[in-house]
Amino acid sequence: MKIDRDAPIGVFDSGVGGLTVAREIMRNLPSEKIVYFGDTARVPYGSKSKDTIIRYSRQIVRFLQEQQVKAIVIACNTASAFALDAVKENLDIPVIGVIEPGAVVAAAETKNKRVGVIGTIGTVGSGIHEDFLCRIDPEITVIGKACPLFVPLVEEGWLHDPVTFEVARRYLRELKEREIDTLILGCTHYPLIRSTIGEVMGEGVRLVNPAYETALELKRLLRDKDLLSTGKEQEEFPYRFYVSDLAEKFKDFANSILPYDVEMTQKIDIEKY
Ligand code: DGL
């Protein structure tokens, strides 16, 4: 199949969190068009089973295929952990998730071979970071910690708030005690409270932002496959946003974090797919 290099990139997440990944793609690949889908009707993914996440992800991929995307980024850590392999089956366009790019960088950065991972219950429970990191270097010890309260705190906009700081202090205590030197921010929302997490962990701990690393990996992948946009097809709306519920709330959040004014967000019935 011949893939159109000027087609958009499909990016999806359980809701607004994946916008941190979309933001990095916008910054690092400014000529690319994006179709973003946020599953706002069925969020959160982090507390749901693997089977459910695979079913949701397959539906979203069918929707994105209908939008004729040239590649898909699973911009959700939980969906990447549970559904990347399932989604890749029978698909003739490239698909990447956010787990591997973060794990590769963490493996390269750690000096004492003690890496922490924070994320949803689903992501941390899946053990996927440990699988990747130990495959790269069997001497690495991975210490995971689910931090479910971070997601609602970020969505509430409490990014620099004493409550968020206290929650972070409690969640991260064990990781500090176990002397990790590298910490993967393994959930889409966490880069937005990076400074709070950094303050709690201290200067000696390197924070890895998988959203940024995924954008770089996407760039390499598109270049290798000769799929980087020519930039010739200018469009009035290079970024299109779709949600499964409450488009207005999504738009407000998107406008608070994107370097781009989100004018139009369309609600679709994802169960149809
Ligand atoms: N986007 C999810 C993730 O990165 C966090 C929010 C959710 O639980 O759906 O795992």
Radius of gyration: 18 Å
Order of helices and strands: EHEHEHEHEHHEHHEHEHEHE
Helix content: 40-55%
Q: What is the correct CATH architecture of the largest domain?
A: 3-Layer(aba) Sandwich
Number of helices: 11
Q: Which molecules other than protein and nucleic acid are bound? A: D-glutamic acid
Could you describe the largest sheet, including whether it forms a barrel? 6 strands, parallel
Cα distance, first to last residue? 23 Å
Contiguous runs where pLDDT drops below 50 for at least 5 residues? none
User: Beta-sheet strand percentage?
Assistant: 15-25%
Number of strands: 10
Name its key features:
273 residues, alpha/beta, Rossmann fold, 2 domains, 6-stranded parallel β-sheet, 4-stranded parallel β-sheet, 11 helices, 10 strands, 44% helix, globular, binds D-glutamic acid
Write a short abstract of this structure.
By secondary structure, the chain is of the alpha/beta class.
Report on this model:
The structure is a single chain. This protein is α/β, with parallel strands linked by helices and 273 residues long. It folds into two domains: 9-97 and 212-272, Rossmann fold, CATH 3.40.50; 99-210, Rossmann fold (3-Layer(aba) Sandwich). The chain is 44% helix and 16% strand. The protein has eleven helices and ten strands. The protein has helices at 19-28, 50-66, 77-88, 99-109, 121-126, 128-136, 150-155, 162-177, 194-201, 210-224, 247-257, and strands spanning 9-13, 34-38, 71-74, 95-97, 114-119, 141-146, 182-186, 206-208, 239-243, 265-267. The strands form two sheets. Strands 4-3-1-2-9-10 form a six-stranded parallel beta sheet, with helices on both faces. Strands 6-5-7-8 form a four-stranded parallel beta sheet, sandwiched between helices. Helix 4 packs across helix 6 (128-136) and helix 8 crosses helix 9 (194-201). The mean pLDDT is 96.
